[in-house]
């Protein structure tokens, strides 16, 4: 039962779009990720996902299933959003952005989309 | 699906030891609380609980069940800890401290201990 210093954990990796697990509780995992550029459109059929921005700016684009209608939310440090299960979303960061994620253990970060960015197994740091 | 600004949410209440729910995901709730003074010893039999310090300093004291052996951890802003289910803990804040909590929906913040600080129903803000 050790404390976790977020800032120190972010110093432990450089890769973008590769969430690192830092702790878990009640079947959910807390992860840190560095984002830069555009991620792939995806959703998580059964899992809600929380994004909390620690540094930089995160654009989350959403689209209605089966349409091309898109909306977006811009998150700055100290801001969070929960993306409900089933909602198509696409994270974008024009400059490097640091986020904390909360989602169920075992979830794929690209959802059902198999993509070059898909990681089959995430590391703990 | 609105974004949540943590700093703005903390401006919406003054009471200490009264967690406010700000969002939920996968059966877990994210709460904000202002702490000052000493809370009551308690545990949550089946639920892990995450403490993340946003402002100030939080002392979490732990004791081995059935003994008087105590240890403590001091958390500063940007630091978190998960208190596993069943572990006796007592939060202490000498000066006002702002924390984010993550725990299952419906959990009592004083565990099985009925205390003057126990709130039967928490508000959403």
From TrEMBL, chains A, B:
Tree of life domain: Bacteria
Pfam families membership: Cupin_2
InterPro entries, A to Z: Cupin_2, PKS_Associated_Protein, RmlC-like_jellyroll, RmlC_Cupin_sf
Annotated Cupin type-2 domain residues: 37-100
Protein name: Cupin domain-containing protein
Species whose genome carries this gene: Nonlabens ponticola
């Amino acid at each position: 039962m050790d404390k976790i210093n977020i800032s120190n954990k972010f110093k432990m990796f450089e890769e973008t779009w590769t969430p690192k697990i830092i702790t878990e509780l009640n079947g959910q995992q807390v992860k840190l990720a560095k984002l830069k550029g555009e991620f792939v459109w995806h959703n998580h059929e059964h899992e809600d996902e929380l994004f909390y921005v620690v540094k930089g700016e995160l654009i989350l684009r959403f689209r209605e299933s089966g349409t091309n209608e898109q909306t977006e939310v811009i998150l700055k440090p100290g801001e969070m959003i929960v993306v409900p299960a089933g909602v198509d979303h696409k994270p974008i960061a024009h400059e490097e952005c640091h986020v904390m994620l909360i989602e169920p253990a075992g979830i794929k970060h690209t959802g059902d989309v198999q993509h070059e960015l898909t990681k089959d197994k995430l590391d703990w740091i």
